[in-house]
Design brief:
This protein is an alpha/beta fold. Helix content is about 45%, strand content about 15%. The protein binds uridine-5'-diphosphate-xylopyranose (2 copies). One uridine-5'-diphosphate-xylopyranose (UDX) binds next to helix 1 and helix 5.
Length: about 450
């Protein structure tokens, strides 16, 4: 059993701390947000993450997990300190490291013995050295310590499963001792552990996210070409993904990627390239292609509903992906703004993210409680986030309430023929309208 603190109880820190408690460690969750800490003490999660509240309850009740705003208490009472505070993008595209730096100062200030300080937040290459320097400069006494890189690979909406069943755990350290401590910490997971130097570990994180984002932008570009040449991107993607070297994951055409990681991590990586005179042209193209993708969704709808002025658009799903309330960098934000600027009325329905969306759009748009209320008198329905709840829509009922039967499926959730048979004019990504969606026979 290790005595662990996790500073930052957001999407990453909360899952990390709660799951470390679940595998038997004594964990203190720390945050500057008093409201979050008070809720967490009552097992109320500040984020929507399937399964988190049950884990919170169990580990708080069994005394392995507690929460405080008192970082001094946390540092003094733990031997492993995770830094999992936000590293949001600055307007320049660089990562905002001010939170990591201010936490590092406090860790140095309150250090009362040997500690392992773990960078869980996604930080630029070389940040381990900077955190080390900050801690040394702020120590009241010169205690020995080590800064380790342990990047997270948690996908929102499946973060708990991703924690317990990782493809690999990356540990970036300078010393054998720190490596061994981290190996012992993660031993219960029985997952492959790769020990590297700190900078390689930091690079693995950025390069992994940049590659995944590039894969998505690649398939979205191919989808645009499919539409022109009459191919079906769903069949193309399936046929490609059967090649184990390509694999089917992150090969789904849609409205493009959002979230608090891909957009900011590729911006930060591009900046790191520029600062080192390396032009990351492929990553830049992936970033440009991603912005074009959401613009393409908007312009296709603009052509379908021309003129857009005074039309009502109903958006099904605004979170950046299913099973999360996170709307950071979601395509829905740009697309809603573009509709409003064309004089459209916009109504949204998301199973959990309505309130998050309201924080941005207030009463400039409408908020529905279900798909039928959303569809009432709309000129077009736009499916932007492929929640399971949207996979079996009652098109007969929707058809009876819409003003005009247009359905734009920005995540290719449906077979075009099915939706068209219900009386809708259907469009999607990379399939043209009505290309025969032939059956895929995998085993015969
Ligand atoms: C963040 C980064 O976005 C991600 O790239 C990184 O890999 C891990 O940390 P996330 O958990 O989504 O991921 O951040 P966020 O949801 O913003 O949570 C950060 C938490 O840190 C917030 O609860 C905030 O109150 C807290 N915080 C921030 C502190 O406790 N102290 C600070 O000084 C700053
Ligand atoms: C990502 C990385 O997957 C994870 O390893 C890292 O730790 C954090 O960033 P996350 O952003 O939570 O996780 O979600 P993810 O499932 O990766 O989806 C990211 C975005 O890509 C979403 O907007 C999703 O809609 C989009 N996406 C994903 C596609 O458009 N097509 C795909 O095939 C897969």
């Amino acid at each position: 059993m290790n005595k662990v603190s996790v500073v930052g109880t957001g999407y990453v820190g909360l899952v990390t701390g709660t799951c470390l408690a679940e595998i038997g460690n004594d964990v203190i969750g720390v945050d500057i947000d008093e409201n979050k800490i008070n809720n967490l003490r009552n097992s109320i999660s500040p984020i929507f993450e399937p399964g988190i509240e049950e884990l919170l309850k169990r580990n708080i009740n069994q005394g392995r997990l507690r929460f405080t705003t008192d970082i001094k208490y946390a540092v003094e009472n733990s031997s492993i300190i995770f830094i999992a505070v936000g590293t949001p993008p600055l307007p320049t595209g660089d990562a905002d490291l001010s939170y990591v730096k201010s936490v590092s100062e406090l860790v140095g200030k309150y250090m009362n013995g040997y500690k392992i300080v773990v960078n869980k937040s996604t930080v630029p290459i070389g940040m381990g050295d900077i955190v080390t320097k900050i801690i040394m400069e702020n120590q009241s006494e010169s205690f020995d310590f080590e800064v380790v890189s342990n990047p997270e690979f948690l996908k929102e909406g499946s973060a708990i499963n991703d924690f317990f069943f990782p493809d690999r755990i990356i540990i970036g350290t300078r010393t054998e001792g720190a490596a061994q401590t981290m190996i012992n910490l993660y031993r219960p997971l029985k997952s492959p552990i790769i020990v590297t130097d700190v900078r390689s570990a930091e690079m693995i994180k950025y390069a992994s996210n940049a590659f995944l984002a590039t894969k998505i932008s690649f398939i979205n570009e191919i989808a645009a070409l499919c539409e022109k040449v009459g191919a079906d991107i769903e069949l193309v993607s399936h046929g490609m993904g059967m090649d184990k070297r390509i694999n089917p994951m992150f090969l789904k055409a849609g409205a493009g990627f959002g979230g608090s990681c891909f957009p900011k991590d590729i911006s930060a990586l591009i900046k790191i390239g520029e600062q080192n005179n390396i032009n990351l042209g492929i990553v830049k193209s992936a970033q440009e292609a991603n912005f074009k993708q959401r613009k393409m969704v908007f312009s296709k709808i603009k052509n379908l509903c021309n003129p857009l002025e005074n039309k009502t658009i109903g958006i099904l799903g605004v979170s950046f992906k299913p099973n999360t309330d996170d709307i950071r960098e979601a395509p829905s934000i740009d697309i809603t703004r573009w509709f409003l600027s064309e004089g459209c009325k916009v109504r949204i329905y998301d199973p959990v993210a309505n309130d998050e969306f309201r924080k941005i759009f207030n009463n400039s748009i409408e908020y529905a409680k279900n798909p039928v209320e959303l569809a009432r008198d709309v000129d077009l329905l736009l499916l932007l986030t492929e929640w399971n709840e949207f996979k079996e829509l009652n098109f007969t009922e929707l058809k009876s309430v819409v003003r005009s039967p247009y359905f734009f499926d920005a995540r290719n959730t449906y077979d075009p023929n099915h939706v068209q048979s219900k009386g809708f004019i259907y469009d999607s990504i990379g399939r043209g309208s009505g290309i025969p969606h032939s059956t895929i026979i995998d085993n015969y």
